[in-house]
């Protein structure tokens, strides 16, 4: 079965597109993420607060849209984003650590 | 996760787009196991009485999910038709090829073949609601395509539906097949090996083996043992389970017959063969322990070391078991036992034959001895016959001729008597004394014999009394023998009696006759009485009429009296006399019936008496015997004047003159006056002759070449041994001066030529008599010294030997004629050829000069070159005449004792060496160094010509290979190989011998270095030692083999260990021979996922302990499966152990570990504490929950303790052999073990086990057996999954939980998760692209400070090309950034990614 992933499109109060992602992103479901990103135009806030896992396949999708989006990422993903270099192409906001999205397993 | 269904985004590629709610439910019911669950999901449940899973009751769903999630083998049956379910473990262990067919079918259909066994049990469960328990039940299951013998221990428990009704049953099962069959085979092998210590005949060995093989008709439905004959045929020598002569059990097999039932030719080459048994005859064939006959048989050779097999064993095969390695190994071990038995029986037989050969040799020796005696008698007869003729013819010729004829005659008689006596002895010894007993008037016959001696005794001036009144009944005698008895006793009495009487009496007494011969002679000293009748024993230095005698007379008398059933006793007191008493029984009851004759002959003394009397007469003083008159007449006066008894030899005069005419003249005059005379040419010759035999007088000319008369006198006077020899000088020079010069030089008298014969005789006579008076004391001393049995010598201050006696010359071969012997004495061992012996003698000699007294045993060389050992003692003394310090010593020849002691001690040393050896090569190398020391050799070399290409070399020096030896040494060893066994060979460089080694002939060479004598004694010793070595090697080899067998069994019982992840175990037997013990370890997978851990130690050693261990281990397993409480398990085991002989006092550590949480519950029955080594370097000893060893306190409730293993802690359980050492507290060993565990913190667990074992091993290896068990928490994670991207999430989930068990910081754990995820994603890509359907394996292992990840796939690693596949390149970069070390190893079979991370 495919890795569970929830994509919730929405808008911020200022009208900016917001895509809230929850779950894990790996090669089995990047196409869903890519489709969701492709369906938006203009600037986009991608909220990864509730993402437990992001691999290089997911990063590749993000790179394609890096120029027009900002990221909200939990501390756990900081190193992945830094190492991949995407942190240099886009703005990464750190999600508050007390967020309910912190993985509990 | 994934419970929220809202907004689930399904990728378009995913197949299961339209799945019903029922399917989802079913999937969840079966979700606990992906594989079996999938197969259960496809079952058409609607067609079963259970209906579709969606409609299943909650109780059924629960039961199914418990079943599927358990790692313990289980199956269950539910509903009216008992529909079958099972889990993965059951599929793997038991179901075999019936999977997945069996799923959803009726249990009675699935297990139709065993339904008769299990059906009634299931009925019981379903009707009573009570569980069943069966241990090791035999079931024939068809899971591999044939009915298979299998054993299962299982429990059926009732299952209830939601309403509480009994609707099914759950079976928890563990398969015991390996254990049951292993123990059965072990029993057979143990019994086969149980009685080899008693060597028996080949037939008995085979009968014994057949008896043991017949007791295992399940593994061995029938057996046939064939032995090869010399002609190549094989004979049936033993069989079980089949009648001899059955079509497949022919009594004889020819090796090359094409139609032979068994492949004898192939097995003769040492090959094992499986033979299919022809189907048509199957009906007639034996079935053994089964109802159907075997379809195949295994033919294995009975291997013989280094040669063609003895024969072969045909074993009918159990048709219900596959012929796997274990089965084949069992049959080969059994054949090995039979072969060993045959080997020892044949070796015993060979020894028997050797003993018989020796006995034959002994008989041959006796025959030779008596033949030789016979051979003497023929020439003796041919001497004595013509001699009698001559005596008659020359009776009137001159006295001299008659006298010499008499001498020849007397000595001929004497020799004849000696030969006859020896012949008698050899006959008695061989039991061939042809006695013929007849009734004899003992009084008459004895008186007759005695009268023969009357004249001789009376001539000696003794009173002879014969008091023999007639007896009332005859005595059965062999006349010849009795004659010898009486004559010997009488001649003995006469010999030692000088005054008084000799008396012979006869009386009847106590049902027999008592004959006594009594004398008033010198008597026998008390100390000599016990040896009086000993053969060849002579009482030395006693006064007797004659000093000759063989010392066998009395011994013969005793033997002869013994043959008559009589006894002889002697009483004697010194100076008073001796009395011999012979008792002969009346009648014939004591005599062999076939030796009796009834016809009495007239009692007359035979001619045998003549030599006795003749000899006795010769002892008597001159004048008493007409035969001796002429010989002794001239010395009668001298004898009388000396007043001494003993030989009355005429005075001996030595003449030294260079003029032959003068020599002849002097000789004629002196001989005419009855002097004994010899003559020499000059003073030099005279000196030598005098030293050899000092004369009574020397008559010497003054003027002589080389050494003149005056110098001769001077030389004689300076030598203490000749100083007193009187010298009469003859000179042509008249005048006072010449005479004074001569007398001043020390001459006793001086005669001027020409002289009258009468004057010469007068002077000679006067000087001889004067000298005899004067030198009485010196002569007495000389006689005394010469009579010593020990060699006697006198050394001067410089160590020169100046005086010796006869025994000295007898022992060493050096006579008095070459005195003095200056050091270095000629009998010293040669300094060049035998430096060691030379040094020993030189050391002893130095001691002789330096010390006041002492004794030495040293090697010396006889004049003829042979080696002797003498034991010498010495004391200082002062020469009373010269006042010089001299050394007086004596010695004995101890060559025989020396060699005997040397042999004994060498054999003892070798025995010790062999008994301490633990294997054949130790035994051999130990022996070689013993041999090297014994012969002080340069080196000892042994080559075994075994099966390998090159002989195997053992040497006392550095280890050597055959091709490294010098060619001449190789040649020497190869030559030895051609020689007969145990026959030594020697040359100047060394000695060698060939012996049997278990692997083949062994050539042994002792390199003596320089040319040194290797004597025949050395050769004898070498062959003895070699024989000993050969036997020792065989024995050690057997122990070796038995130990290997025992060890194989021990390991078979312990294994095959399907160890849970995270465990490592070791079993190490003790190093000494056969000391396999009763230590064990065990892990038991419990139904609830926990793991039972057991380490135990039975008292005792060997197979018995191993058997007890096997029972306790099985019991402990079963108990743990029933009730996972260590305390209750041990309590129950107490009761079990009380009923098993030898199980008392076993110590056990029993624990139950939850591998998820690390929680350990444990109880210890007197076992050393477990060691828990924490990651932070601290150690916790598991000392709680302790109580006494097993079966000490039955019904005692044992305590239990708990602890939780933190992450990366290591648990060490062990038996006391690991830590217990003599003279060291146990705690020291435990500390050492803890330290070893901490030291191996960065090792994989298996390597750690090896390190701990080697770290704690004592220098000589473990002297007790050791079982060891290690667990590191958490155990490694090992997953194999299909190369599909959908697998990534579950894999990550499992890895995430495992990392949580490792208690890592969240960021570290996440980094590892990402790195592993990238590697897995990569592997999946390869799998997809190249070989879809392949699998990926992920293994994660935590060390104390390190973490190790391996991801292996079956595809080609993709070198990242940034332009084409950017994100794969990123993946590798992520892996390298997250982990400390990443290694990618592409290979033909796939790619392996290794990653390490230090986690401190």
TrEMBL record, chain A:
Pfam families in UniProt: STAS
Organism: Streptomyces albipurpureus
Name of the protein in its database record: STAS domain-containing protein
InterPro entries xref list: STAS_dom, STAS_dom_sf
Residue stretches making up the STAS domain: 14-62
TrEMBL record, chain B:
Residue list for modification 4-aspartylphosphate: 701
Enzyme class: transferase
Domain PAC: from-to ranges: 854-906
Region (Disordered), start-end ranges: 628-647
Record's compositionally biased regions (Low complexity): 628-646
Organism from which the protein derives: Streptomyces albipurpureus
Annotated keywords: Kinase, Phosphoprotein, Transferase, Two-component regulatory system
Protein name (record): histidine kinase
Gene3D superfamilies reported in the protein's UniProt record: 1.10.287.130, 3.30.450.40, 3.40.50.2300, Histidine kinase-like ATPase, C-terminal domain (3.30.565.10), PAS domain (3.30.450.20), PPM-type phosphatase domain (3.60.40.10)
